[in-house]
């Protein structure tokens, strides 16, 4: 069974590669690409309509593979719980792992629990702790990423893999280039992020790929209390509160 599945997966990959190199005639381009345009538009419209009135929210990023008995899961749940107690809603990627923990903490505290789910081959479906009217599922990563950025007033980044790193660098890039406001970015787990931060400092800064001041965009913490404090202190500097 496993061998057949692997062969099927390989065949699918080969098909995608060959398709990318295939010349299309005008009819094929018009029919396939037109459908994609309307699908993308519909995802943007649904996202804007559902999220326009959710109020101030903080996004929690992190691995979909983290189990409920893991310390990172428990920490993400507690961070979300405390965020709600401080007046914020919580947005996650809507799936399992850290995302589920974030929604669970927000749900437990009685706050807004938003899930921006993405359709993937092996994972994921929306977790049970998302407010039913605030679950949105996407086919396109780039549409989903726009929603994260547009409707978040802060980003808390738990340990995670490629997807988490993608979301972190997306937020850093948009803030660095002033495409969005300088919202707080909090990395949770100093030991986990140690190697990344060393690479940023010893390679990116030393090779002049970024400025040393760019690293001031990042806050490193180890506890839920520290994470929430960064968010609160940021907004207190602007005389804002979660009820603005």
Description:
With 244 residues, the chain is α/β, with parallel strands linked by helices. The protein has one domain: Rossmann fold, CATH 3.40.50. The chain contains eight helices and seven strands; from the N terminus they run ααβαβαββαβαβαβα. A seven-stranded parallel sheet has the order 4-3-2-1-5-6-7, sandwiched between helices. Strand 1, helix 3 and strand 2 form a beta-alpha-beta unit. The longest helix is centred in the N-terminal third of the chain and has 26 residues.
Main attributes of the structure:
alpha/beta, seven-stranded parallel beta sheet, 244 residues, 52% helix, 7 strands, Rossmann fold, 8 helices
Task: Please provide a brief summary of the model.
This protein has 244 residues and is an alpha/beta fold. The chain has eight helices and seven strands; from the N terminus they run ααβαβαββαβαβαβα.
Structural class by helix and strand composition? alpha/beta
CATH fold-level assignment: Rossmann fold
Task: Strand order, main sheet: write it out.
Answer: 4-3-2-1-5-6-7
Rounded mean pLDDT is 88
Tell me about the biggest sheet?
7 strands, parallel
H and E string: HHEHEHEEHEHEHEH
Low-confidence stretches: none
Q: Any guess at the CATH architecture?
A: 3-Layer(aba) Sandwich
Q: Tell me the strand percentage band.
A: 5-15%
* Strand runs, count: 7
Please, how many helices? 8
Integer count of domains: 1
Distance between the termini: 56 Å
Helix content: 40-55%
Molecular shape: globular
Gyration radius (Cα, Å) is 20 Å
